[in-house]
């Protein structure tokens, strides 16, 4: 297991960051390593972002030292979305078959979580988000058919997209974790436009299905002090509560959003008008 810690920062301190400092603090460049678990512990809402790619063996989710816990879910809940080939997640002996773009929620208190691929030649890629939990909710698999689906934007504004709300309050109960997946239509490149902030919760974006040779420019920062990070396929970026989180790609792509904080209302956001961005 590889685990690292990222610290919280203020809006004023980031104004002095170089490109390298920005990438070091916010960008998660590599999440999938064969037969390993990669975890990043953020001090924003104690949010953990991770990736597990089992190839030749089953990978057990262990508690990193940052948690000071006997097992990973001792005081936490966990959301998983598979962005690879089909695989299995075994939760305290119960097996869940998780296909491409399917999600699994695991509640607090489950002691053993094991990950495996159905075919080592085509491994599963389990993308993870985890947050502290105050009570236990049932473990549940959520497919795209069970998601709350919303279509927004238009081809004229290059932001025609489908939002799949997978692990959200309108689909199943969670303590504070929310996860979903936004798929941009061919010809559209913009996500989360108009941009917004929400001081009640932080967010992490994970970009995937970015074609070879293409990239996504992720925008962050206060609405009047925006910055950008160039991102590649299967990379994630941490967004502070005071920051916008938006992006434009050189092609269409898909991204997973994960949120944590004190408000489970998906529509709770402070919208920033496009002409007001700086």
TrEMBL record:
Cofactor: record remark: Binds 1 zinc ion per subunit.
Gene Ontology MF term list: 4-deoxy-L-threo-5-hexosulose-uronate ketol-isomerase activity; zinc ion binding
CDD domains xref list: cupin_KduI_C, cupin_KduI_N
Pfam family, one: KduI
EC number assigned by the record: 5.3.1.17
Alphabetized UniProt keyword annotations: Isomerase, Metal-binding, Zinc
Catalytically driven reaction(s): 5-dehydro-4-deoxy-D-glucuronate = 3-deoxy-D-glycero-2,5-hexodiulosonate
Binding-site positions, Zn(2+): 196, 198, 203, 245
Swiss-Prot/TrEMBL GO biological process terms: D-galacturonate catabolic process; D-glucuronate catabolic process; pectin catabolic process
Cofactor: Zn(2+)
Known pathway: Glycan metabolism; pectin degradation; 2-dehydro-3-deoxy-D-gluconate from pectin: step 4/5
Enzyme class, first EC level, given as a word: isomerase
Matching HAMAP family: KduI (MF_00687)
Similarity section: Belongs to the KduI family.
Role played: Catalyzes the isomerization of 5-dehydro-4-deoxy-D-glucuronate to 3-deoxy-D-glycero-2,5-hexodiulosonate.
Name of the featured protein: 4-deoxy-L-threo-5-hexosulose-uronate ketol-isomerase
